[in-house]
């Protein structure tokens, strides 16, 4: 049996000199204790310092006890994070068992009922209701010294926030700051915050805005960085480096995760590369948060070793090095027509030259082979310049978090897929064996298909 440990993973100071900590997430069924433990151990072996595990329901949350106990028996004390979306009870159970719970404000306590306008009083009343609903979780976290990550994701904001700010970086930042204020009402401060999006600019701008709001209100909480649903291969690595690298250059970031539609163990070496390129900086000042920020080009002597150890190293370094200039509007071109240069420009929205894939890394909620599906879809659609396709593990991540996608391929149950055109459902519960061809047919039916040049 294990005891709760005082691991203050939510108490880092913004912009301090603490090392950046690396995180990943298991993609096993949380009810499969052995598989989850084995994957966690593999992640730790390659350098993962914080492991997130999905807990969509009470049963999964309760089984975190068995997972944690087995890890401790095997000499592994890595901090665990319970990933919570819709179930407050699961969060409360997990908070007594693991070091941190992650909640998404947009789908954790807000209730979406089709309301599109809130008066000032109604808006304030909703915040009071949220505080009341969160009070139990906060008290459990305080009792067990459990940290909480408030993870605001683009595309999953509540109706309350959408009514005032829309699906915007400002809306994401405001949602997080409101939840921070609620926690502070209960004198609870063991917090971490993240603003995630598959759109690199949205991720950067929302994080900067949140930090700016924290500074204005005298708050100082650690920031978790990540470009969600980044995809795989070169494109996924470049998108991750572009967003994370830009914010690290700003002096922002305490923990990070690279989200790839690959085995979780492959995320850590990429995260290690990105983190190694940037020394810890002084705390950011409010004036550097303005959009765009002032950009001062970094030289190789200042930040970068003028030599690449591998193709992957080259891709990630260049993305981290140049993306801030694009995002801050200082340049729109790069003197290079290589595939890596084109991918960097596409990642930050400077130049579109190919198809783009918004694809989640999968987790225990995914009930089909998402890696195989992504490869099949890419093989058939990579020539469709400018088309964005979302390939998502489950309804939690789609359709909201593939908000920018033209078409969506979303897990709907064991071996079943639902197709989207934009945010609208087109076909439900297609067998996975037939779903890729059904997606191609959908693209053709909507006039977005062109034949690949031979």
């Amino acid at each position: 049996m294990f005891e709760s440990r005082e691991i203050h993973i939510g108490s880092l100071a913004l912009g301090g000199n603490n090392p950046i900590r690396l995180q990943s997430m298991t993609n096993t069924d949380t009810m499969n204790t052995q598989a989850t433990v084995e994957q966690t151990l593999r992640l730790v072996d390659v350098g993962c310092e914080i492991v997130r595990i999905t807990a969509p329901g009470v049963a999964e949350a309760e089984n975190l006890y068995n997972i944690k106990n087995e890890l401790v028996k095997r000499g592994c004390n890595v901090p665990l994070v319970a990933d919570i979306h819709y179930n407050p009870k699961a969060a409360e159970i997990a908070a007594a068992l693991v070091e941190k719970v992650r909640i998404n404000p947009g789908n954790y306590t807000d209730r979406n009922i089709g309301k599109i306008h809130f008066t000032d009083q109604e808006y304030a009343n909703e915040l009071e209701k949220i505080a009341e609903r969160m009070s139990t979780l906060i008290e459990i976290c305080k009792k067990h010294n459990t940290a909480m990550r408030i993870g605001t994701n683009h595309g999953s904001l509540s109706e309350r926030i959408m009514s005032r700010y829309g699906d915007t970086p400002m809306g994401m930042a405001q949602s997080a700051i409101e939840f921070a204020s609620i926690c502070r009402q209960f004198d609870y401060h063991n917090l971490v915050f993240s603003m995630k999006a598959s759109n690199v600019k949205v991720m950067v701008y929302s994080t900067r805005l949140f930090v700016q709001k924290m500074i204005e209100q005298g708050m100082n909480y650690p920031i978790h960085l990540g470009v969600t649903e980044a995809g795989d291969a070169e494109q996924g690595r470049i998108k991750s480096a572009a967003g994370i690298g830009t914010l690290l250059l700003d002096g922002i970031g305490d923990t990070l995760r690279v989200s790839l539609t690959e085995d979780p163990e492959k995320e850590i070496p990429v995260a290690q590369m990105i983190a190694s390129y940037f020394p810890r900086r002084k705390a950011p000042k409010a004036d550097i948060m303005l959009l765009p920020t002032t950009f001062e080009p970094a030289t190789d002597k200042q930040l970068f070793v003028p030599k690449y150890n591998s193709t992957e190293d080259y891709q990630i370094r260049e993305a981290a090095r140049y993306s801030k200039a694009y995002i801050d509007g200082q340049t729109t071109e790069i003197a290079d027509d290589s595939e890596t240069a084109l991918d960097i420009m596409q990642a930050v929205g400077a130049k579109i030259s190919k198809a783009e894939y918004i694809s989640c890394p999968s987790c225990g909620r995914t009930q089909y082979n998402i890696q195989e599906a992504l490869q099949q879809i890419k093989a058939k659609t990579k020539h469709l310049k400018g088309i964005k396709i979302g390939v998502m593990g489950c309804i939690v991540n789609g359709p909201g978090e593939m908000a920018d996608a033209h078409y969506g391929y979303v897990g709907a149950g064991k071996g079943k897929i639902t197709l989207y055109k934009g945010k609208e459902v087109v076909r439900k519960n297609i067998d996975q064996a037939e779903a890729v061809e059904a997606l191609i047919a959908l693209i053709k039916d909507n006039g977005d298909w062109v034949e690949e040049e031979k």
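The two ends are 62 Å apart (CA to CA). Residues 1-16, 285-306 have pLDDT under 50 and may be disordered.
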